[in-house]
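Preliminary data (for renewal application), adenosine-5'-diphosphate complex.
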Amino acid sequence: MNNPILVLNCGSSSIKYALLSDDAQARIQGLAENLGLDTARIKHTDIDGSKIEIALANANHQTALTKILSLLNNYQPIAVGHRIAHGGAKFVQAVKIDDVVMAEIEYLSVLAPLHNPANLLGVKAIQEIYPNLPQVAVFDTSFHQTIPEKAFRYALPKELYEKYQVRRYGFHGSSHIYVSQRADSLTKRQTNGWITAHLGNGSSVTAIYAGKSLDTSMGLTPLEGVVMGTRCGDIDPGLQSYLHRTLGLDFDQIDTMLNKQSGLLALSGLSNDMRTIEQAHLAGNTDATLALEIFCYRVARYIASLSCALPTFTGIIFTGGIGENSPLVREKILENLPHFGISIDHEKNQLLSRGVEGAFHLENSQLQLWVIPTDEEAQISKETKQVLGL
Ligand code: ADP
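Predicted structure:
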């Protein structure tokens, strides 16, 4: 593996890691989870696909990263690219990390209290282990900094925007940019108007024209937009004071409810996992059917509304765990878009899953339909190299 880049996505109790070769074809990857608990462990997949699991009771981020680096088969990364959740309006692209950048990421923690501090734990741990290794911050929000003001402002007092950074930001940038660029290269055109639907445990939908994000479904936080695994997506903001008044819930309790106890999990009463919901739906469970219907209808509604942002509408790209793997969800979303002149190749749709890339529209379709497996690690590695001139 030549000139490998280590890509890290550090959460409060987990580290997703991948060491990528120069061309991003070869990789060593894994997940450290339950950090800080006696069940802490690393699930590691080597370059040949072999898997091991290592118990690391009570490991913190630094202990886990030291172990992860020792598992990289003596490959020494030449740089580290970090997925950083929130770059606010400050970071319009990836940047090399120094003390000033770290202070900014810390400052932006008010906008992403669960994510930015955890992301910084990884940066600090690498600084301790390899003080001279260059590190780059790749923000989930940067790609959306091209969204015009008419789309990113909320209809709220101006002071909230000017003094307190209250506006829409959008997330999943590395995924939306990766799949739209891939579709541009597959269609050999740069002036496409795409709606990218990243549907996973967290989901967002973005309007992209000529490589620029023009609007997206997530907002100030990743809670806005479509229904997700455990997040509610769009709700009437009046709900919060209603819950406070009638149930006496405080804001932390409401926050937990909307982020962790809602979405597909709440609607189905079963699981946040779309596979479980599909199986239950096929077995006749009516709550699972409703969860599926609501999920698909809301995604379709976003596709239709975000198409307003596009000068021309070339097609829809599905990605993320659900978008890449569920022909049923794709069909049901498209069923809710009867006015767009879409013709589906149903057989082709069934064949697109488990990492298979391809189009599934018929020749007479007004819109192209694509499944493009996302590769956020490859995008982060690419931007890390660009920033460092490697
Ligand atoms: P994250 O947002 O955590 O990165 P992913 O993009 O990996 O999530 O998507 C995870 C979700 O993908 C799972 O929760 C599951 O609902 C869904 N998923 C994975 N495989 C399938 C499948 N074959 N059919 C339907 N849904 C699937």
